[in-house]
Prior knowledge:
Elements: H1 2-16, H2 32-37, E1 40-43, H3 45-48, H4 54-58, H5 61-66, E2 71-74, H6 108-120, E3 124-129, E4 133-135, H7 139-143, E5 173-175, H8 181-198, E6 202-205, H9 213-226, E7 230-233, H10 242-247, E8 251-253, H11 255-265, H12 271-284, E9 290-293, H13 298-304, H14 307-311, H15 315-324, E10 328-332, H16 357-371, E11 383-386, E12 395-402, E13 405-412, E14 418-420, E15 426-430, E16 436-439, E17 445-447, E18 452-456
Parallel strand pairs: 1-2, 1-10, 2-3, 3-6, 6-7, 7-8, 8-9, 9-10
Antiparallel strand pairs: 4-5, 11-12, 12-13, 13-18, 14-17, 15-16, 15-18
Helix pairs in contact: 8-9, 11-12, 15-16
Amino acid sequence: MKNIFITLVLLILAGCHNPSAPIVNEMSPVTEADLASGVLYEANIRQYSPEGTFNAFAKDLPKLSELGVKFLWLMPINPISTTKSKGPLGSYYAVSDYTGVNPEFGTLEDLKSLVDQAHKLGIYVMLDWVPGHTGWDNHWIKDHPDYYLQNDAGEIIDPINPFTGESFGWTDVADLNYENMEMRQAMRDAMVYWVKEVNIDGYRVDQAYAVPMEFYKKTFAALREVKPVFLLAETDINHPGGIEMVDLFDASYDWPGHHLLKDIVHGKKNVSDWDTHIDNLFKNYNDRNILVNFISNHDENSWNGTVEESFGKAAYAALALDYMSPGMPLIYSGMEYDLNKRLLFFEKDSFPKVAGKTFKFLEKLGALKQKHAALNSGKNRGLYTRIATSRDQNVLAFERSKQGDTVVFIANMSNEHVGFTSPYNGTFKRYQDGKEKVLSDTYEYRMSPWEFWILSK
């Protein structure tokens, strides 16, 4: 009997240390409160470190916690196709196996460890999912050619622009056929796999607007049968599907706001245009539609320019506005370390990680987002009230408020010195040092180009 007992204990212990067993931890599923105060971080694993691995990235998870990061978005972690690939390493978005791990980044166990470590820090982990197309050496190409769109000659094709009938030029990927219900189920099963096997907490869906809504409805129901998840769409109401597509997800992008902000910085638009944009957001989106606010991401950085190139001296004002506006702010890999280069997309790259002025700034912004209910987004978001000034085309001033908590943001969104008055009165604390700041209708304020104030009480 004693030997049998010992054998059972050994078997149990062996099972507990089985590396293929799904990780189980006590972190609660995503809640509305998490979404309300969340900060999102996009991790470019390949370029984040010289090693370009899950394990190297995981070492810095405590630093993300210092920045108030609540949601971690990993760019695609799947193996990358080599057939027709671009550059030496290919695109992350040319997936060769939906249930595999890119050996460039590490192993399945390394990924599980990263997720487990993030969970212990209270950080949810999302995978970047590419449902619209695969790489050319995905096993579906050989095993299920009917999963793909084909031309009149029966040849699988790369994605075609529906407006011009011409190729987008994404020749490293093959376009999937969503008329094929078997393919839809295989895609759905793959998405459920990662939630069950690795205990991830959701997905960022690439080009969400290119996939039928019926697929999402059934797939999201299947995911939520496993546990509550956070679902971010790369879309907005101007993409196909409009608000109905946005409504299927927990969050979507404020692409119009991003482009408008760059236009303001470059003198093509002004604060009056921003007011119109905000009015349209409140008109077209409901309270549960969380917008992701950003000044950079992987596409912007690699193809359109660095933060310095896009925003110049206005970068901090624009970044602060992302945190103060209704929505969820996004930090892209390297921004916290003053990334000043366009990261290569199809080959290895990296950047120095020295915490300086921007890291400290993001720490303060993250703390404000966590501390102040007035900055909440989602169903119970803080109110947004525009504050009038005598220079409304140049000065953006607004109040966020909720349950007696108030945060005021005032910024000179122009490249000239401005003087202005405002009928708004109140006594506040400055975010930088907690010192008192009085706002009064008897004052004339002076602000330097791109100067901003964040005040709270």
